């Protein structure tokens, strides 16, 4: 069995962003030369998420609105975590959106359903962030 590991880095320019990382993940899969197996992709930051969904701007706006309604950024004083930091909402948003995705690899391709794409969701950005890609298989 083969194993492949790579960290992908992103320069996040806003506090919250959704980035379609599917092409980056497929490139990792191509580099790995693994044709059959499992791919794991996870956020390496406690205030970020990796998830699978549709690449549709209206849906991304809906995610933002929904998450902000569940865990609003302000007022910062509403959260016990905030004090030294002001990112309690980002921790909660990450918990809702999830840490990682696992995707089957079949014939050297990501074995997706229709419209599925992999996204990096950032909830406390404005700095360099990363994800881990780990692929195992033959």
Overview of the molecule:
It contains three helices and eight strands; from the N terminus they run ββαββααββββ. The chain is α+β, with helices and mostly antiparallel strands and 138 residues long. It has one domain: Jelly Rolls (Sandwich). It has a five-stranded antiparallel sheet, covered by helices on one side. A three-stranded antiparallel sheet has the order 2-7-4.
Keywords:
single chain, 138 residues, alpha+beta, Jelly Rolls, five-stranded antiparallel beta sheet, three-stranded antiparallel beta sheet, 3 helices, 8 strands
The main sheet orders its strands as 1-8-3-5-6
Radius of gyration, Cα only, in angstroms? 16 Å
CATH architecture: Sandwich
Structural class comes to alpha+beta
Shape: elongated
Low-confidence spans: pLDDT under 50, at least 5 residues?
none
User: Could you name the CATH topology?
Assistant: Jelly Rolls
How much strand? 35-45%
CATH domain class name: Mainly Beta
Average pLDDT over all residues: 97
Task: Give the % helix.
Answer: 25-40%
Q: Give the full name of the CATH homologous superfamily.
A: YjbQ-like
Topology pattern, helix = H, strand = E: EEHEEHHEEEE
Distance between the ends: 5 Å
Note the main sheet: 5 strands, antiparallel
Number of domains: 1
Q: Tally the helices: what do you get?
A: 3
Number of strands: 8
Topology readout:
Blueprint: E1 2-11, E2 17-20, H1 22-32, E3 36-43, E4 48-53, H2 57-70, H3 88-97, E5 100-106, E6 109-110, E7 117-122, E8 128-137
Antiparallel strand pairs: 1-8, 2-7, 3-5, 3-8, 4-7, 5-6
